[in-house]
Amino acid sequence: MISKPSQIAKLQNKVAIVTGGASGLGEETARRFAEHGARAVVIADIQEEKGQQVAESIGLHCCTFIKCDVADEEQVKSLVDSTVERHGQLDIMFSNAGIVSKCMQDILTFDLSAYEKLFSVNVRGMAACVKHAGRVMVEGGVKGSIICTASVMANYGTGAAIDYVMSKHAVQGLIRCASKGLGEHGIRVNCVAPGPVATPMICGRLQMSAEDTERCFEAEFAIKKSGFLKARHVADAVLFLASDDSVFVTGHSLAVDAGYIPTN
């Protein structure tokens, strides 16, 4: 249980939403936000039981869970509006919810229905979160921070899982455009671009344990002998983008990838 903020609280009295916060990068970041003094952290996810457990384990009086499917814009709007209604404002939106390809899509067997399902979460959902978070920040006069989860794969092409790679390219385009539209209001919009991390979603997709998944990715990192890339490393980058430490950073994709070099 997180009972008090760290000595140097970077998010003192801030109100944050974390989508996809029931596990993986979202869960780790929600915990980091609480450790750094956020007065309210709202965890949003479709995984209701896990989300409730994470909120309870963080232990803040104002750490709550709201079930939300980001592919449904009305649910995103309700999530944002209910957060402002309860806590008075929204300072940070970490739009992290995303899914991976269920099949290794290549161009010759491209399944457009599967592509549309993935884009409804990874692109439409991200746009909805940026739109509605930006809306309430402008209305409330809040100089907030919006962070999306992209991927190191937004910098590469690949022969498989191309719908996922396309979606992460779209996230980078989204934050670059939104940073222009919201910058005049003092609102920053960035994304974090992680390299491969052994999150529950990735391990489930590969049908491998976390340890085996990390070993699988190890050869693709330029940085060696420093351990494996973990969710906590990505959470630290998100914390930087959410805090005043990055007050003049916007429209930026921050890679946390240990010098990822795709080998396959």
TrEMBL record:
Tagged with keyword Transmembrane: no
InterPro entries, sorted: NAD(P)-bd_dom_sf (IPR036291), Sc_DH/Rdtase_CS (IPR020904), SDR_fam (IPR002347)
GO molecular function annotations of the record: oxidoreductase activity, acting on the CH-OH group of donors, NAD or NADP as acceptor
Pfam families: adh_short_C2
Entry keywords, A to Z: NAD
Family recorded in the similarity comment: Belongs to the short-chain dehydrogenases/reductases (SDR) family.
Protein name in the entry: (+)-cis,trans-nepetalactol synthase NEPS1-like
Naturally occurring in which organism (per UniProt): Coffea arabica
Gene that this polypeptide is encoded by: LOC113726054
